[in-house]
Automatic annotation (TrEMBL):
GO terms for molecular function: oxidoreductase activity. It comes from Bacteroides acidifaciens. It is an enzyme of class 1 (oxidoreductase). Keywords: Oxidoreductase. CDD domains: retinol-DH_like_SDR_c_like (cd05327). This is General stress protein 39. Its EC number is 1.-.-.-.
């Protein structure tokens, strides 16, 4: 009798999310499509079932700008005691204006970092030995800067600007990847980060991007979602990546990072600050 394996993919109805979900479905996993827009996700689910022949795709609503929603989602998984083999933290946003969530977090920070942190921490009890966690980061982590105590509730020091705020969240998610990988090593659960490159998804509107100059510079490098998703898919499914943990992958290859990132001076501080901010939801 074949072992039932579950995968959870956030933002499964988006550009890269669909490609990741398609690949995981073809690999025979039962999938929870964790999405904010249930109606859109249901349409995507039906198409993916037809394309892959895998009927075991399920849409579950979750709003990553609400910690209450994240906890509710996680608790449903815990109550069902699903054996989770794959967790893909794929969903992301780049807000064009400054917005504070009901929990007091800047919205980009909530969706891109705080919610994946909370979701992952809550789901660890049902993750099996050999499970893989993959966090979708971005090359922009390289220009990220974590300003405490402003990071969680403002994204950055000073005036809001979407590019550095987005970059800061991706640096935070990368540092979370490194720290969590160390904590879960003995449990046999791997944690890695995937950099998809610059991808044509809903985060980027091709007709009006960051500004004219960056549009001219970056447009030749913008990838289709399928190519952008391939690195994350490899980390989730390739047998050769079994046991690999605490790494960043770019273009399907491990990227050698300097000590500046792997032992970032703020890595432990970020963990402690986030734990305190989420204490009431981590109970």
């Amino acid at each position: 009798m074949n072992e039932v394996k579950w995968a959870i993919i956030t933002g499964a109805d988006g550009g890269m999310g669909r490609e990741i979900t398609r690949a995981v479905a073809k690999a025979g996993y039962r999938i929870i499509m964790a999405c904010c827009n249930s109606r859109k996700a249901e349409t995507v689910r039906q198409r993916l079932i037809e394309e892959t022949g895998n009927p075991h795709l399920e849409v579950m609503a979750v709003d990553l700008s609400s910690m209450k929603s994240v906890v509710s989602f996680a608790e449903q998984i815990l109550r069902r005691n699903l054996p989770v083999f794959l967790l893909m933290n794929n969903a992301g946003t780049m807000e064009t204006g400054f917005t504070i969530t009901s929990d007091g977090f800047e919205r980009t920070v909530s969706v891109n970092y705080v919610a994946p942190y909370l979701l992952t921490r809550k789901l660890i009890p049902v993750m099996v030995r050999g499970a893989r966690i993959v966090n979708m980061v971005s090359c922009t982590y390289a220009i990220g800067c974590l300003d405490f105590p402003d990071f969680l509730n403002r994204g950055k020091l000073g005036k809001f600007w979407r590019i550095p705020v987005y970059s800061n969240t991706k640096l935070a998610l990368l540092l979370f990847t490194f720290e969590l990988s160390e904590q879960l090593r003995e449990k046999g659960i791997t944690v890695n980060a995937a950099d998809p490159g610059i991808v044509s998804t809903d985060i980027i509107t091709m007709h009006k991007w960051f500004d004219p100059l960056t549009d001219i510079f970056f447009r030749p490098f913008i990838r289709k979602p399928k190519k952008g998703a391939s690195t994350a898919i490899g980390l989730l499914l390739d047998e050769k990546e079994a046991g690999v943990t605490g790494q960043l992958y770019v273009n399907n290859h491990r990227k050698n990072l300097s000590d500046k990132y792997t032992n970032h001076v703020q890595k432990e501080q970020l963990w402690e600050v986030t734990e305190r901010a989420l204490a009431s939801w981590l109970k």
